[in-house]
Amino acid sequence: MNQQFFGNARLAIQRAQQLHLFFTESVLYDQFKYTAKMPQYPKIVFLQQNPFVRNLVEKQFVQFSIIDASKTTGEDNVARLAEQVQLQSTQTNGALLFGFPNNAVEAEKLDRLLDGVNLAIRFKLSESLAQKIAGSYLSCQSCGKVFNTSLPFVTPTHPGYQNNCQTPSKCALEQSSAPADQINAEVANYYQQKGAYLEYEINEEHLLYDSQEFFEKLDNAVATHIKV
Question: Are residues 50 and 162 in the same domain?
Fold first, then answer.
């Protein structure tokens, strides 16, 4: 009887300690989970530039500043970019960087100016998903609207045009020429060596990316790999 009582008491204490650990080290901000390991204002680089990844990131990291640095060149511009990243990261919950760096030299320079990028993320796409993302496009000769027929939620629009057509009868089919899963191996290797790299696999099932389970797994992967 005493052994059973003390055994149950120990189990209750262990459960209480686990609950205390969870509530003191984990806080939820919208869709992204922060743990005690997370830096206060994380700076994250995304190694791909395509509408699917951009949509995915904007949906998941809703409280972050998103910075498109694809046109950044030159020493002074890199310094200004670093200042922008530093400032915007503190105004929100962190900063997400697209389109930069383009080589290991730029990555090292950015690291030095920011006192270290916390994580670089590459979404590794299955072959069938990469083909779907590259997709086929219907561009309307009348209104200028462009539709990706493979990804209904990605509909890039030509600036200055509106979709005034009721049917795509005047649209011409065009193939995308940009590789959807292209990354810079030199930059990826740099962040791998720095221990600040996450390669996260995505397949066709994630096209329905309102899946809470998918987002939770992504959160946990980021929290595990992020460099403080």
Answer: no
